[in-house]
Amino acid sequence: MRKFLNFKANLGELSNYVKCNPKGVYYIENSFFKSKSTRYFMYLRKQGLDMNQAFDHLLGEESKKNIGS
Q1: Are 42 and 49 in contact (CB under 8 A)?
Q2: Which of 15, 40, 62, 67 is the most exposed place for a label (fewest CB within 10 A)?
């Protein structure tokens, strides 16, 4: 994904956020389109859901949980 999107990311920060080791990030990227959660979001997008709105909501929920911990 990073290569496809031409996105430069600090692999340490990325693996820390995902909560996996750097090899796990490569596994995620290699199996991205086979992932059921990815397929789920792709289906929702095809049905017209605004994925930016969905991800903004998810990020907001994550922020609420992190503040309380």
Answers
A1: no
A2: 67
Please tell me what DSSP assigns to residue 14.
H
- Which residue ranges make up each domain of the chain? 1-34, 37-69
**Distance from C-alpha of 44 to C-alpha of 50, rounded to nearest angstrom:** 8
- For 2-69, list the strands marked E by DSSP: none
Neighbouring C-beta atoms of residue 14, cutoff 10 Å: 16
Amino acid, single-letter form, for residue 45: R
Residue 64 to residue 43: CA distance in whole angstroms: 27
The model's pLDDT over 13-65, given as tens digits with 9 standing for 90+, comes to 999 999 999 899 889 988 988 999 999 999 999 999 999 999 999 999 999 88
| C-alpha–C-alpha distance, residues 9 and 12, integer Å | 9
Task: Tell me the C-alpha distance between 36 and 64, whole Å.
Answer: 26
